[in-house]
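Q: I'm building a small set of examples for a reading group on sequence design. Run inverse folding on the following structure and report the sequence directly after it, with nothing in between.
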């Protein structure tokens, strides 16, 4: 769901906001009246809404109230930020506010993108005060974040182990069982600073408190007396930092065209997995795949069509494998899978199902239909090393292509 609702009586302002968000990749609906907004909300799902504080025929701020009533994260759009406007905005559970000015375009795109991304982000709030936990949680939920709560460090640790996808922890300092300092140190033994952000939100005013936490691995320290705006800005900055690190990691480890893991990451991931599986006597399978007659596809339809075939084939393969293994693009039209979720005695049936899917799959490109088949070589023989397994699977792939293509050969 990537649709945004814009409530704005001014056609020029609405066009500016809509163009800004469309450039950022979002679909937008524009309602110039309160009634039209009601109709849109009844007919569609929105992950966020931007509303002018002034709408014809209704009270000041009614557009924001409408969004909040329907649990749509709301962003206020205003022409000015005088004291009265700010006072009114402070009483509403909004995500943020933006000005109707062209120089606000980047910020509008940034805050809407943040809310969109937050739909998949889990945050853990840790505090022994239920009222404080609820207060912080309400602030974070405004941003569309998924919020979990714990009353102390010990409870937080249990929740963390059950939710390995938590991206951000906000913790108090003084708590029973396990305080925030011990919790921070413990979490840092599990996840690094570029994988998990820890923000300390404490009422402790001692000058040594913040440095103690930062040395234990906290990313940030905020006094509990801070404004809601400051808390949200710090939360957003920490989440954006994690995303920048992840984007950098993806550029190094993922194939630029298909989005699959690249050859480098395959070995980085596969070598430890092979060692662990070998030591524990667990089965592991390696598969090599090659799109048949790919050069002919390029020659017949062009290289752009060939790229689209690679993209669509990769998406099909990644979806088919799912969490049963890791898929990588080894180079050109050749792909590799390391499977730790498929047993050797079920390998042929598993691969046959995919081969049949590809045979019945087609890529549409500029009005033309491109069909394809795939040749597959595989092995479950773990006698030597991961590199040896790749060699065995590659030999079988070569045999499959030499003996007619569109078939599977396995080395047991």
């Amino acid at each position: 769901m990537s649709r945004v609702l814009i409530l704005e009586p001014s056609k020029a302002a609405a066009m500016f906001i809509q163009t800004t968000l469309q450039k950022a990749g979002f679909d937008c609906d524009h309602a110039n009246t309160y009634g039209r907004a009601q109709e849109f909300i009844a007919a569609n799902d929105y992950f966020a809404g931007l509303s002018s504080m002034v709408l014809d025929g209704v009270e000041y701020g009614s557009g924001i109230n409408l969004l909040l009533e329907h649990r749509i994260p709301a962003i206020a759009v205003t022409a000015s930020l005088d004291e009265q406007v700010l006072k009114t905005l402070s009483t509403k559970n909004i995500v943020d506010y933006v000005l109707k000015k062209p120089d606000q375009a980047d910020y509008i795109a940034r805050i809407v993108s943040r809310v969109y991304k937050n739909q998949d982000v889990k945050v853990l709030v840790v505090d022994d005060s239920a009222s404080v936990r609820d207060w912080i949680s309400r602030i974070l939920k405004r941003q569309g974040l998924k919020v979990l709560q714990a009353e102390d460090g010990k409870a937080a640790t249990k929740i963390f182990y059950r939710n390995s996808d938590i991206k951000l922890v906000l913790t108090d300092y003084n708590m029973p069982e396990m305080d925030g300092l011990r919790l921070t140190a413990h979490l840092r033994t599990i996840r690094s600073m570029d994988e998990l952000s820890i923000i300390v939100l404490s009422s402790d005013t001692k000058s040594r408190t913040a440095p103690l936490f930062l040395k234990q691995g906290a990313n940030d320290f905020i006094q509990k007396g801070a404004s809601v705006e400051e808390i949200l800005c710090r939360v957003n900055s920490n989440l954006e930092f994690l995303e920048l690190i992840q984007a950098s990691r993806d550029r190094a480890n993922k194939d630029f065209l298909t989005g699959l893991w690249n050859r480098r990451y395959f070995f980085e991931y596969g070598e430890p997995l092979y060692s662990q599986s070998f030591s524990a006597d667990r089965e592991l399978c390696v598969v090599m795949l090659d799109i048949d007659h790919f050069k002919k596809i390029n020659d017949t339809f062009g290289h752009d069509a060939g790229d689209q075939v690679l993209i669509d084939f990769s998406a099909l393969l990644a979806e088919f494998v799912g969490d049963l293994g890791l898929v990588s693009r080894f180079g050109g039209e050749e792909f590799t899978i390391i499977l730790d979720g498929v047993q050797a005695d079920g390998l042929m049936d598993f691969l046959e199902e995919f081969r049949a899917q590809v045979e019945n799959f087609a890529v549409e490109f500029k009005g033309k239909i491109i069909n394809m088949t795939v040749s597959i070589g595989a092995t479950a023989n773990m006698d030597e090393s991961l590199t040896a397994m790749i060699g065995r699977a590659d030999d079988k792939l070569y045999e499959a292509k030499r003996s007619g293509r569109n078939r599977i050969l396995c080395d047991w």
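The mean pLDDT is 93.
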